[in-house]
Amino acid sequence: xxxxxxxxxxxxxxxxxxxxxxxxxxxxxxxxxxxxxxxxxxxxxxxxxxxxxxxxxxxxxxxxxxxxxxxxxxxxxxxxxxxxxxxxxxxxxxxxxxxxxxxxxxxxxxxxxxxxxxxxxxxxxxxxxxxxxxxxxxxxxxxxxxxxxxxxxxxxxxxxxxxxxxxxxxxxxxxxxxxxxxxxxxxxxxxxxxxxx
Length: 197
Known about the structure:
Elements: H1 19-35, H2 37-42, E1 54-56, H3 63-70, E2 76-82, E3 84-89, E4 92-99, E5 105-111, H4 116-125, E6 130-135, E7 138-139, E8 147-152, E9 160-164, H5 167-173, H6 175-190
Antiparallel strand pairs: 1-5, 2-5, 2-7, 3-4, 3-9, 6-8
């Protein structure tokens, strides 16, 4: 399996949303989660209705990342999404997913029983080059489930490298730096605000 070139956290400035700003937004949402789980559950649903299930295929396959964002690892199962391709993005370590031929597929997982506010956290974690769509991934037992997924917007296709993105390679080379950076952003947004005496 090929590995994407230039997989470093610093990355290229060509992406409109940098890794740091992406994590800052996610951290802001996580602050509300830390303050009150009950308030989080009672929060109003986002404008885009969700299925409560998310098919994930990149950094959100890592429980370490999911737990930083929504404070738990929900029930999950391995799943396959047919008719799509996972590929690299120039200069950054996370992948994109784009439509492909019917014999193509993406191996990932489904996160189950997500609340509307948890889906909103995932919405905010994703950069604006992604959009949420509803798909039908196939579970190991052959059944299908309706799920939301974040796919790459066609208008940003020039940022893609049509080489396969490898999850295990990402874990080995980027996971701990990614989680450390995310942890710094979460801590920064949950730090008490002090005012002059």
